[in-house]
Write a structure and sequence with these properties.
Helices cover about 35% and strands about 20% of the residues. By secondary structure, it is an alpha/beta fold. It has one domain: NAD(P)-binding Rossmann-like Domain (Rossmann fold, 3-Layer(aba) Sandwich), CATH 3.40.50.720.
């Protein structure tokens, strides 16, 4: 479909995983697309990715830089603000500078310069829930805090009830629950609040999207934050056993990139989504061990995961998003983790520059004291 210059959409972070797939879908829908991306070296060490379409207006720049963002907003009608800082580094201020301040700057420029932006879609994260929603037989609905270092050191993985100290059971978490407990999650929730509040105040239709663990091709090999799909697939690729943290029974919510893109386009074009925040998840939970077994099955290899009794400090135990609100708009997840892994594996095998970076990532995480061992 021929692109319509009057429907120019800016995608910040458009060279990245979610951004680039959203760009492809926008072009297929007839939008014109501009990308603003700084090509952060830890995500794009080889520079501008070859998968970006030639018809995209690519701008190298920083979303936190007023001149770069102002330049990128010229002539724009729609904005996907997907650029984000994700890492386990303790550079706390960077999370707020990139994720939160850039969002305030976006609305500052739109309002201050009277740019005719018709909608903004902001990328948030499932991380804003912390441990999320649990049920206790005695106390009812509870939202436990992050597990203490003392608890994790003894290998006691399940969070206790914050009221009575008894056992609790996880349930899917809806958008009404917010309990961010690390620098990334706090920065993303602050970003949401800025976007929705300023959008309402100044009449700029705005939508927040709380993505679960998004999976599929184009996830960077080099970004330690990009998760289990990358780590487990690279392990299988190099005939190594993937390392599973804790006991592998923690629940996670995986969603396919194409389902995410479908949600992104739906909220752009449906006014019922305006000024709302939506979970974008896979619709059910899987244990980490189940996911590791899925990866082995897709590769056709009999390699079991290793469970060495280590944990990643700051991780949640269980988190699965309730997607009923987004379903009410007519969206539903269409693909399984097996579909996502299959796509990722096909993409991985098509690369001619795959390097064994697993040892580097593990050393890097240990140096940061993120991966820690149970003491007994």
């Amino acid at each position: 479909m021929k692109s319509d210059a009057s429907r120019l959409c800016l995608v910040t972070g458009g060279a990245g995983f979610i951004g680039s797939h959203t760009v492809d879908a926008l072009l297929a829908r007839g939008y014109s697309v501009r990308i603003l991306d700084c090509l952060q070296s830890r995500v794009h060490p080889k520079g501008k990715p070859s998968y970006l379409p030639a018809e995209v207006d690519f701008m190298l720049g920083d979303v936190s830089n007023p001149d770069d963002l102002d330049r990128a907003l010229q002539g724009v009608r729609y904005v996907y603000h997907l650029a984000a800082y994700q890492d386990y580094l303790p550079d706390f201020s960077t999370f707020f500078h990139v994720n939160t301040e850039s969002t305030a700057l976006l609305y500052e420029l739109i309002v201050g310069k009277h740019y005719p932006v018709e909608k903004v879609v902001v990328a948030s994260s499932q991380a804003v829930y912390g441990e999320g929603h649990y049920n206790c037989r005695s106390c009812g609905t509870v939202y436990p805090d992050i597990r203490s270092e003392a608890q994790l050191q003894t290998g006691q993985w399940e969070p206790p009830c914050p009221g009575c100290g008894g056992s609790i059971k996880w349930t899917p978490t809806a958008e009404t629950a917010v309990n961010p407990r690390n620098q990334y999650a706090i920065s993303k929730y602050a970003q949401e609040m800025i976007a929705i509040a300023l959008g309402k105040r100044y009449g700029i239709p705005t939508v927040g999207m709380r993505y679960s663990i998004v999976q599929g091709p184009r996830q960077s090999f080099y970004n330690a934050y990009s998760g289990a799909c990358r780590i487990f697939c690279l392990s299988m690729y190099f005939d190594q056993s993937p390392v599973v943290y804790e006991d592998g029974q923690q629940m996670r919510d995986y969603v396919n990139i194409h389902d995410v893109v479908a949600a992104n386009l739906l909220v752009l074009e449906d006014p019922k989504a305006d000024y709302e925040v939506f979970n974008v998840g896979g619709g059910r939970g899987y244990t980490v061990v189940e996911f590791a077994e899925t990866v082995a099955r897709v590769f056709g290899k009999q390699i079991a995961p290793k469970i060495p009794g280590v944990y990643r400090f700051g991780d949640t135990r269980h988190i699965v998003s309730d997607v009923a609100k987004l379903r009410a708009l007519g969206w539903k997840p269409q693909r399984t983790p097996e579909d996502s892994v299959g796509e990722y594996v096909n993409w991985l095998k098509a690369q001619d520059n795959v390097e064994d970076i697993l040892d580097y990532v593990n050393r890097h995480m240990k140096q940061l004291n993120v991966i820690r061992e149970v003491k007994g």
